[in-house]
Amino acid sequence: MLDKIKQLQDEIEALGASTKEEVEELRIKYISKKGLVSQLFADFKNVPGEQKKAVGQAINVLKNKALDKINELKESFENAEQGAGGTDLSRPGEPMRLGTRHPLAIVRNEIVEIFARLGFTVAEGPEIEDDWHVFSALNFPPEHPARDMQDTFFIQRDPDVLLRTHTSSVQARVMEKTQPPIRAIFPGRVFRNEAISARAHCIFHQIEGLYVDENVSFADLKQTLLYFSRELFGENTEIRLRPSYFPFTEPSAEMDVSCSICGGKGCNVCKYTGWLEILGCGMVDPNVLDLCGIDSKKYTGFAFGMGIERITMLKYGIKDIRHFFENDVRFLRQFEGTY
Ligand code: DAH
Fold first, then answer.
1. How many CA atoms lie within 13 A of 318 on its CB side?
2. 246 lines ligand 1 (CB under 6 A)
3. pLDDT means per 10 residues in the chain (339 residues)?
4. Is 214 exposed, middle or buried (CB count within 10 Å of its CB: 0-12, 13-18, 19+)?
5. Whose CA is nearest to atom 6 of ligand 1?
6. Is the CB of 139 under 6 A from ligand 1?
7. pTM to 2 decimals?
């Protein structure tokens, strides 16, 4: 019996096939239910007791070898088939979905580009600031409400360390370091101690602008803002300046643009006024120039500051500021292809 097994084993080891059909024939011949290997199991009954262990082991080894051999032959044909046409190497790849730019980044880039065309460069300052750059250098009196804990995030250990509440702080830093002419914008993230709602968030983004040189006038400010508004909202956009107050500008104004949704006729976005408020601006207060080391007798300047969330909401008709920070792909994918 052992000889018979050995003989079959040699035979199986030497097997070869030139087609898939031949492999199938071999499978039937050796390992199907009625195959030669299976017959050995039937003959096993007649093996004398003392040989049973050795013969049983040999049959099992043979069976495994036979299975492996047939599988090996089968696979060799399957692989060959794939190489010959099963895999089309010229087929286009599965497209991979790319990420999209965040709507706030899209609008920030657009604003930066508009001002770049007017010769404004970009500068940035720290988000963790000190009282001087956020308040004192900008002419805020010591008791100004913006300094209150209700509005500003302070660090408990050190009252001089705070999260900036506006990007106007970068104005102070730039003026301290550079003499005019200065023509730059400062995009960045700001923080206010506010309850989160559809209209307000404790973290948001602003872009600040600053222009300081000899003979800079309010007319320059107005023309710059008109150009900016028409580039951003369309060529038929009108602007309107309303007198306002900021500690760091004198005179100060708030600027409205004609509502781009109803064209100024009145709709629920502009609350039927035809106008949308988008920024604060003014002539840099001479005190601020002097505090930052710029001679206010020689130089004048203008400044402005706007919230990127608000402008993005107006531009795209977004109703809730929280969408910007939730990273819901269903929201973000709507900006696919926009740069
Ligand atoms: N910093 C102001 C704010 O956060 C915005 C602002 C108003 C900036 C007038 C200016 C400006 O530069 O001139 O509300």
1. 22
2. yes
3. 84 83 85 83 83 85 86 79 68 84 96 98 97 95 79 89 96 97 98 93 97 98 98 95 96 94 85 93 98 98 97 92 94 85
4. exposed
5. 305
6. no
7. 0.73
